[in-house]
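Figure S4 source data
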Amino acid sequence: MTGLQTELALRQYDAIVIGAGHNGLTNAAYLAKSGLTVALLERNSYIGGATVSRELYPGWTYSNCSYVCSLLRPELARDLELPRHGLQVVPYGGGVTFTRDGDYYGNYYDHNRQYREMARHSPRDANAYERYATDVRKQTRLIRPYLLRRPPDPTSLKPRDLSDLLGFARAFMEMGEEGLADTLRFWTKSVGDYLNEYFETDVIKAHLGGTGVIGTALGVYSPGTAYVLLHHYMGDMDGNVGSWGFARGGMGAVADALAKSFQAFGGEIICDADVDRIMVRHGKVRGVALKNGNEYHADIVVSNLDPKRTFLDIMDAADLPADLLHKARNFKIRGSSGKLNIALDGLPTFRGLDPKSPLMLGDMHFTDSLERLERAYDDWKDGTWSKDPYVDMLIPTQTDPTMAPPGKHMMTVFVQYAPPKINGGEWTDADKAGFEKSVIDQIAAHSPDFRDLILHCETRTPREIEAEVGLTEGNIFQGELTFDQLLFNRPFPGYAQYRGPVRGMYMCGSGTHPGGGVMAAPGANAAREILRDLRRVDVVPECYADD
């Protein structure tokens, strides 16, 4: 042990945050901003968790887990001065779903062009889209004000909880009887059934419905997936709700900017710090012990790990209530996603699509019906990867040329479905190769030159995601976004306000409200509750009001 390591091991901090993903960084930044001495411990040699950029092939930068930016709350980005610390988010336009008959459905940001494209497939659907978009926006406006607030506890009689519940009830009552019925139906409905109420064209429904299953171990006809669609609709770019963008330099730029903000407030980041356990004495935390034997002491310990890893791996069962252990073991956190990051020798072409089309700049899909989406889910249920997968594919180097050498490109491919185990056993290299082939085959069926352009392919199954990032079963949301695991049920009833069962212990990861995605809201909300318990000034901004 070096002298510096010895000094750090003996340091006393006001607060320790475990895990330097974007929520851990956000939480640590606000605690440090309040004047606390804060240490952020990360087991890897780099920060970011799943929000990371890495050069895994010389000259190419991969956003090797999360890949697009929109959910990051603008209130937090502005307050922590992330643009000043280097974060640039560039919006991308539109998207496209290719059909097996050689046609495609294009999604344009221009309203008139979008109407014409929908009408090309179905005049009825073109006329229905405005009603659909309006209805989804209503649900968005309902939930957005609660993203940067702790969920109220419906079993509590505390004035703060009662006030919050009354506010929530008031928002529901203002909808009227019909609006309330529509909302309850929306939150419990499958995305497939919901879209069938508005549209008749398979490819349009498939294009819109894919967002309802991203990151979930559910299919398009599983109840509750309509909300998952909403979760992906809540983001915005410069006030444009539902739009998405690329972080210049890859998603690691988000983590880097958060780290610089945290360090500007005096915070310390300690990498290669693998936490063995949270130390507890007489019902109160006293710090953490690392696997290398070092100890870091603090009266506040915040876990950015998922609920299973927090309570089943790094806490002693003797320090926890039996009911919590039961809830942690039964918390739904099934992996369902994989990812390919591909270095390309040039820009691929796609049948029927002009290479200069704005649709090339957006997300690309190849599943042209809800039926095919559901069949992909059937493979997952059978314990294997989807043979005809749903992919969300982008080529960010068209917008951000810093991620590849001149004239070259990088392709990011998010994939549903990939199970955490194959037929109950561990993934093998042969399984991984088969999964990779299923994705490449699907893209190549619509791009005649795609295979010849591949220089390198990094394939990530739930096995790799769990091993590197520490997400149980490779679940990208730290727990499924089903109705029974939202709001005051996230992660568990009785523990949804970021506080753990031990005094001084808190949670700030995506396994808490409002859930997954690169949002940073859980980290900020947890910081607000910690500062409240410490009776310190609240430095966390409130949610912007919708117009």
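Figure S5 source data
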Amino acid sequence: MIESLADDLRPEKYQSLVDVIDHIANEHSALPAFSCLGRTLSYAEIDDLSSRFAFFLQSETELKIGDRIAIQLPNLLQFPIAFYGAVKAGLVVVNTNPLYTATEMAHQFKDSGVKAIVILEAFCDKLEKVLPETQISTIIVAKFGDLQNVIRRQILNLGAKYLKGAAPNHNLPNTYAFLQTVKGANNYIQDSSRGSGDDVALILYTGGTTGFAKGAMLSHNNLIANMMQLRSRCLLLIRDKVENIAAPLPLYHSYAFLLHCLAMPFSGNHNILITNPRDLNSLIKLLKRTRINGFVGINTLYSALLRHKGIKSVDFNKMKFCGAGGMPMSTSVAEEWEEVTGCEIIEGYGLTECSPVVAVNIPGKVKFGTVGPLVPETELRVVDDSGIDVPEGQRGELLIKGPQVMLGYWEKKGANLEAFSEDGWLKTGDYVEVGEEGFITIVDRKKDMILVSGFNVFPNEVEDWVNRHPEVLECAAIGVPSERTGEAIKLFVVTKNDEIPIEVLEAHCREGLTPYKIPRDFTFVDDLPKSIIGKILRRELRD
């Protein structure tokens, strides 16, 4: 039986994300919305600044309704302003990982056809390298200190440029300063044609069975529905309008985006943006000086915090909600976290293709080792390799149907045919068992995907880059267990002549791969196991 959403959570009340944004501004105007680097903006201020940003896009650029705009920012106040403003202007947002190399940026920008970008100054040198390959004509450059008071702004920007070297020199043409875009008039053009219903609102890139990034098209309806589905679970622990929710996961990631840019703002709660969660000392200080009621992380972050000497000096009495997703939680970490903090970790499961939430454990009924039951309005099937439903309790591939399931992949007709069954079910590629009360256990992930610190790494992407080295004949990447990152990448390499120094291969990888995609183990072999038709058999390498 499919669980239904409560009447007050019906997504049909809102025709578009603009309606949701307007609701947030009207209902919660005086409440604190986002804090970062010592500055807090209210929902009224966020609404005003995003409207100014929208009007700038409409009046000062040549962007048209439906054009794509990339947001390549870490967790800063500029992120929600740019997102809300772009939606108000009728643009389609493309979230982009700030850690991307120039090569990865070029692929995503060319594939989505973005015509504008909001980018942190620190990444402009990479954009400069690939700009001629793209359609980008509007470049909006943000700095760390934007939206801070004058003195703090200068300190942060100078520190980023000269002390931390986080703002390398660049020479991009016709750029706009982010501050310039939000200091003009607040009279953006409201028009019902600016996106609603099944119109694409967001493109999020994910890996696929080929290993190459594909853009999942998420509609206004997809995101609104999933926001309400997640809210149905959050309401069991999180009250509206009074809670402080820490945001250590990057907003460009689908789960953090849904939670902090939509679900928590809809609830009128306060999102505390953490720009660099790897700085554990600063994160511990934040937890000590701020009343944090909610915290969402991944296994590696929870584990690192537990190992930090300052964790036992943090008062967790006000912590009500700790969530996890992106990678499997270790039972030992979850149990230790609850012992230290008194707060259980509620693990969930999702895919970018599902906006992303599919299942979440129920507070007070958490079953370690599972990702909980389906969120409301969602159906599942468990099938064998022939697509036939398996008997109850047996493992098989998980298929999903629900209002949060994507429209499809951006301009990838072949991939869409592979992603959906003939009767419209999304094939997750994940193998599961469904137990009592519908609690789902993930027994095996997509066969070849490697999960490094919560980030999907697909072997073909790594292999494609390494194979570009002139001395590499072929290679194959697999995931191996890692205490620090969950999994690490091991690369088997066949060279054309003699072995290549590992240092040379590492340097080559750094040129074209984000750090978490760089192999940690290189093994030279004479040959790779292959099928009759010549396909590399990674399963034999894993065995």
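The chain has two domains: 16-340, 450-542. The CA atoms of residues 4 and 307 lie 41 Å apart.
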